[in-house]
Amino acid sequence: MSPMSNLAHHHTAYHPRWYRRRMSVWWWLKDRAYMKFVVRELTSVFVAYFAVLFLWQIRAVTQGPDAYAQFMGRLKTPLFLTANIVAFLFVLYHTITWFNLTPTAMVVRVRGKRVPDTIVAGSNYVAWLIVSIIVAWIFTRGI
Amino acid sequence: MPPTIALDVIRYRPEQDAEPAFQTYEVPFRDDWVVLDALNYIKDRLDGSLSFRWSCRMGVCGSCGMMVNGKPKLTCAAFLSDYLPGPVRVEPLNYFPIMRDLIVDITDFMRKLTKVKPWIIRDQVWPLEEGEYRQTPEQLDTYKQFSQCINCMLCYAACPIVGLEPEFVGPAAIALAQRYNLDSRDEAAGERLKILSDHAGIWGCTFVGECTQVCPKHVDPAGAIQQFKLTAALDALKSFLVPWGTR
Question: Looking at the structure, do residues B114 and B100 belong to the same domain, yes or no?
Fold first, then answer.
């Protein structure tokens, strides 16, 4: 049966025929905002990558100084250097986009007044800076 | 200023078309015309069979929402001059079934809206002689933004989750649920949490954020949903830590 005869059979005043559009698998490529969202979601893969790398590092530590030296040597190869730089940039994108979204998710009120978005988002950056300084201090002290 | 501008409008007449297709209309260009004015010009002068919904022409009724150049817009607030030199692509709202031309079926939205019980629910209703339930300006301020929704459904047409997950309750309905949760006169936040704390509710949202971007009333549904999630998460944590302390 052709689609047209099917149609003629189905559409009457009291039996209308709605048209349902299919959503393409590539829906996120059609809109810049959607693309930015999907990139933000994908950046979590790189966060996971750093977590796995960290676990691997801990494993190397438990296996003694030789294993640790071998692990650190492996990190200096061009393959790992490139991978880590790329992953770092994505994690940076992840961090900044999520920090900027915090004021949307959190409403902080002080004496009944809503704290401005810049302060809610800004406090994340301040915390980030403080943690970075502490980490840098531990590292430089170690050397 | 060009004398005319072209509009590529989706046509779908279920009694004769197998699927929707674009039809182009040339309309006079005027600085003070919005897309809705152009559609009404088409309806009045060029093709009376074109069907679309509209009512107030001033961004209050929420019935003239359509996709304009791929973005959900109130056509009464989308100026032709912002789409020069054209053509302007006008389509029915995304993710809704098309009934005819630019008209979509909103039954599903109405069902989702009532599902979240968007009205004031009280355990005990005061007798009339006790007077009205009074609120301070601060109490009003906590939910006022979320109460500005005009049910235009632009946020649904902006949300890919609505398209991918047919059961997802969606931005406007959840924002409205949060509006009543935050209302000091309401006592049913726990009840709404039970309804919405699942994958079809707040946890279906992945925070794309486009609902907030397209909202003509600055309701910020994305904010409402994330704030709802935060409350739900804290609630779950509280019931885990102090199981005897929850209602």
Answer: no
Host domain of residue B86 = 4-104
Indicate whether B100 and B112 sit together in one domain.
Answer: no
Work out whether strand B98-100 and strand B21-28 pair parallel, antiparallel, or are unpaired.
unpaired
Closest CB from A4, A18, A104 relative to B97: A18
**In this structure, are B156 and B92 located in the same domain?**
no
Residues B100 and B165 in one domain: no
Do residue B125 and residue B169 come from a single domain? yes
Per-residue pLDDT tens for B213-232?
Answer: 999 999 999 999 999 999 99
pTM for the complete prediction? 0.88
Q: Which ipTM was obtained for this model?
A: 0.84
Distance CA A54, CA A59 (A): 9
Residue in B with minimal Cα distance to A35: B208
**Chains A and B: how many Cβ contacts under 8 Å?**
71
State how many domains chain B has.
2
The answer for residues whose C-beta is within 8 angstroms of residue B212's C-beta and 6 or more apart is: A104, B155, B219, B220, B221, B222, B223
User: How confident is the model over B115-136, as pLDDT tens digits?
Assistant: 999 999 999 898 999 999 999 9
| Closest by Cβ to B160, choosing from A4, A19, A27 | A27
